[in-house]
Amino acid sequence: MPPKSQITSFLGLPNRTSSDQIEKTRLLFELGLPSISDANNEWSNRPNVLATNQIGNLASTARAISNPEASVPRTVKVEPDVPETTKQAGASLQIKQLWEGTVTEVRGETFVAILNDKSQPSSPAEQVEFEAVELRVDDLPLVVPGSVFYWMIGTERTPSGQVRNISNVEFSRLPVWTRSSLKTASEKGSRAKQWFHANGSYPS
Amino acid sequence: MPTEATPPKVDEFEISIFGPGRGECVLIHLGSNEWCVIDSCVSRGRTDPVAVEYLRSFNNDALANVRLVIATHWHDDHIGGMAALLSHAPNAAFCCSMALGSGEFTTLVSAATATIAGHSGIDEFAMILDELDARGQRAPVFAVENKSLLSLSGVGRSFPIALESLSPSNPTIRLALTQMRSLLPQVNQPQRRIVNPRPNHTSVVIWVNAGPIRALLGADLEHTAHADQGWTAVLTCHRDTVPAHLFKVPHHGSPTSDNINIWKHMLDKSPVAVVTPFSGGSVRLPQESDLRRLSDRTPALYCTATGSGRPPNRDPLVAREMKRQLSSRRILAGQPGHVRIRWSTANGTVTPQIETFNGAYHVNPTIK
Fold first, then answer.
1. Domains in chain B, ordered, with CATH?
2. Closest in A134, A145, A147 to B325, CB measured
């Protein structure tokens, strides 16, 4: 019996060597964007299907957290900016549906999540229940309430012309809370409380 | 023939209950074209909150006459679009649970706004604070048991009206603060989103006194094991001897918020009861058994909708993959139905006019 989902990375392998490119890859990974480094492991012989302009767009986002102590700014666009079709050297990937999910509850072998439609943002949010067995083993520890993931469904045409359905669930690797970022949040919270009780100014 | 867009007469007391968009909303006509809005939701595929759409449909400047906007708690199924509602209602004061004025909650909001943006109630609450700050309005009305939230005399108005909060009790607030502290992030923990904790301990139950009419709006308050918390505390603190003619059933009719003593001691013998569905929990609410239990208690049980509606059409491959990989799937935001109850205060009668719109229905005739 075939597995229910084929776990692949939908950005393919970036065949880059410069230190700058490696840094971008690391930062994208930390931001929770589709994991290029994981693609390295699984698709080591694949051509690079990530367009150059995508890297450029994402680089500005990546710079925003170049300091590992800093939290992610609210303006950061976290969802992957993936073109509908990426093509190179005969391979193509057509993304038919992309959701951003937030885990709300873990129930043993399954987990419940809220899906927000990134392909058709006007579509209503849905509450769904996934089977954890669908996930990559290294994603399993990330399945806790509040975790963010992306679910992509599409088709891939291989260089040999074979068309395969792809369903990929990938969890974001979010930055961690540091002592300083927690202290900042706590101080801002205290100022907000004072403001809320008409005693002090609103924290910017 | 009145339609949904027909405004109430100045001396008509109205309670309108909408749901479920992604959540629910209650509007109260305070008389003389003044309004109070409790909670907020947005219809599927729309941008303005249902309260804004409803009041705007009257074409009588009702939005400018919203006196009070109340957030019964911070879950996303109760405050969706509330910041936008406040921006459309510039003269409204803001009211929320005393528990939300705590340092624990404001720190939680600060922590949430430092992480990735999402669609949670806590993100909406951050936008509410921004909106209040932009209009130079702070120090909201904090609701706690037995506190007057709004009181308008009948002098120069069509009828007197008062709103009083019956919850949360102080022990319930302490419970809520403990729950909030457990949500605060720790060092080296990933910056995850903050999801709604259950059960909800911050909820604001509201008692409405409008001339001869009373209404009990149950929000999402649930039971606890202690007499000084939850609904038992409400029963203890309640003082009005006149029973309520309308009951907004708490927590979508769930058994965890059901208490027969509410019906015995706080409600009229056959009150109008309105329940709003909810799709986001472990089970859909209300269940058939909930509707049966509630309809045994009153012949005037209404529900605002049968569910959240059909899922959108998907590409066949996507639909097939969803069916294959998901063990359950529910749409969270639908087109909210509307139950509208109006009483004329001119003749002193407590017999209401009840209307249903957009899929809302009278439950009792559907129970076999």
1. 12-185+198-366 (3.60.15.10)
2. A134
